[in-house]
Write a structure and sequence with these properties.
Helix content: over 70%
Distance between the termini: 27 Å
Order of helices and strands: HHHHHHHHHHHH
Shape: globular
Number of helices: 12
Number of domains: 1
């Protein structure tokens, strides 16, 4: 399910970024950017792909630890690599193959080294994740006010935003499992709020920065941040901590290598 979600998320990134790069830079980190893009059928198709991916991500998080599911979203980079080679004729060399093997190997290693079962946050962790939602959602607007609408800060904001979507989705799963319907609706609203800010930051990042820089940062944070926080949030120590840390580092390295690949970048913003 995580692999299917990652494929749809990669397609979503590609379609949305294609249109975002055509928008004027004066609309960076402004709602008018989304207002412009929402009139583009290609961009809306990307939104549809992302919307279809989220239930798969939620289902995966209900079955397995966030420490496995979020890094598995990096498999979407391999999908972009395949699209770049197949549709655009980009060559795949040892660098790209090494990055793909690193991501796939890291996900396999995390399946063994991460805590088993789905993620269940304690009371303090739940409050911490929920309390951070308005802060994460406000990041793009804070960066605009601080005149930090460049590629690096917006890529970071996008990565943190999508990472938090994964964390809050876990709270949605927990609420549904407890039949706490009002809490589930509240967390769904939080997912929508953070997704809005993440999309706004991501569209601005691909507008103002080469994809070979924006993609590794956003994907890397989305993959690694929730997994790195998981032991503290769930109070479930990984059974193999050294292998766990090594697998996270390997996943991050693979994302950096693949995200900076010309084939991946051209597939994302061809």
């Amino acid at each position: 399910m995580a692999a299917a979600a990652s494929t749809l998320f990669a397609l979503s990134t590609s379609l949305q970024a294609l249109e975002a790069r055509k928008a004027p830079s004066s609309e960076a980190l402004r709602a008018s950017l989304i207002a412009r893009l929402v009139r583009r059928p290609t961009w809306l198709a990307g939104v549809g792909a992302g919307a279809a991916a989220w239930p798969l991500q939620a289902g995966a998080l209900a079955l397995a630890s966030i420490a496995v599911v979020q890094p598995a979203l990096g498999l979407g980079l391999i999908v972009l690599l395949a699209l770049g080679a197949w549709m655009l004729g980009e060559k795949i060399g040892p660098r790209e193959l090494g990055g793909a093997l690193a991501v796939a190997g890291a996900v396999a290693a995390l399946g063994w080294a991460a805590p088993s079962g789905s993620s269940h946050f304690g009371t303090a962790a739940t409050w911490a994740v929920a309390a951070a939602v308005p802060v994460i959602a406000a990041l793009p607007y804070a960066f605009r006010w601080l005149r930090l609408a460049g590629g690096l800060p917006t890529s970071i904001a996008a990565g943190i935003g999508w990472a938090w979507v994964g964390l809050v989705t876990t709270l949605v799963d927990d609420s549904l499992a407890r039949h706490a319907w009002l809490a589930a609706l509240g967390y769904l609203a939080a997912v929508a709020l953070v997704s809005w800010s993440a999309v706004l930051a991501e569209m601005t990042s691909v507008q103002s920065w080469p994809a070979t820089r924006a993609i590794p940062i956003a994907f890397g944070l989305e993959m690694i941040l929730p997994a790195a926080l998981a032991p503290a949030l769930t109070s479930a120590a990984p059974p193999h901590p050294v292998a766990y840390a090594g697998a996270l580092a390997l996943a991050l390295a693979g994302a950096a290598v693949l995200g900076s690949s010309r084939a991946v970048a051209k597939a994302a913003v061809a």
